[in-house]
Design goal:
About 45% of the residues lie in helices and about 15% in strands. It folds into 2 domains: about 5-125, no CATH class; about 140-215. It has helices spanning about 25-30, 50-60, 95-105, 140-175, 185-215, and strands at about 35-40, 65-70, 75-80, 85-90, 110-115, 120-125. The protein is of the alpha+beta class. It has 5 helices and 6 strands; from the N terminus they run αβαβββαββαα. A hairpin with a 6-residue loop joins β5 and β6. Strands 1-3-2 form a 3-stranded antiparallel β-sheet.
Length: about 220
């Protein structure tokens, strides 16, 4: 189905293909009419299963995902028909061209892939009617990916968290031992915020691995 760039299109009941990327002018017109909405989801890569469930629920409610922002934090939906679609977030350290071709040849549509060369997240989807599709049929492979992601963030964040905690304690201790020294509250405040943030990301990643392991074992 060809997609016209005419803004007159917004006056009709839209049945836009899932792969359509809308013109910005049409997007603005659709948003004014309430036919296009955008949702911001931050740090969803730490709990991929949650974003998959959310997207599938949105599709069932008739909100069809048409695109994501280049950072992957904003999701754009058009109010359309209810669809049964399987979404899958795949994490890879290194990605070759054959990776995309293999999944596309199996009927998966790529919606988003992160720009980072170190942690590559790709969002895939596939519409279905009967049997629920899976990007990987091997359950051990799915668990391996979840474990690899969890280990990555634990290795990256836990040492930094411990370092920040040590800096906070040292700063407070120095202030108590030497009351004449001005207390620079900005540094421990920043370290505390960063500690909470990184701790939150680590816990989310651990939760994802635990949920995946429980689902695989069941």
């Amino acid at each position: 189905m060809a997609f016209s760039l005419s803004t007159n299109l917004v006056n009709f009941d839209l049945k836009i293909p899932l792969s359509t990327i809308l013109d910005r002018k049409i997007e603005r017109a659709l948003r004014k009419e309430g036919k296009l909405i955008k949702k911001i989801k931050l740090a969803w890569t730490y709990a991929p299963d949650k974003i998959e469930e959310w997207l599938e629920d949105m599709e069932m409610k008739g909100y069809n995902l048409v695109r994501m922002s280049w950072l992957g934090t904003t999701f754009y939906f058009i109010k359309g028909e209810s669809r049964t679609i399987k979404y899958c977030v795949d994490y890879q350290n290194l990605v070759h061209d054959s990776y995309f071709e293999i999944h596309k040849s199996n009927g998966w549509e790529m919606i988003f892939t992160s720009k980072s060369a170190f942690t590559k997240y790709t969002l895939w989807r596939k519409e279905y009617t009967n049997e629920r599709p899976e990007l990987y049929s091997d359950k051990s492979h799915i668990l391996k990916h979840a474990r690899k992601q969890c280990l990555l963030y634990c290795i990256l964040y836990i040492p930094i968290i411990l370092l920040y905690i040590r800096l906070i304690v040292s700063n407070v201790r120095m202030t108590l031992e030497y009351p004449g020294i001005p207390f620079f509250w900005q540094a421990p405040l920043i370290f505390t915020v960063l500690t909470v943030e990184l701790g939150y990301f680590t816990i989310k990643s651990l939760g994802y691995y635990i949920r995946t392991r429980k689902r695989i074992n069941n």
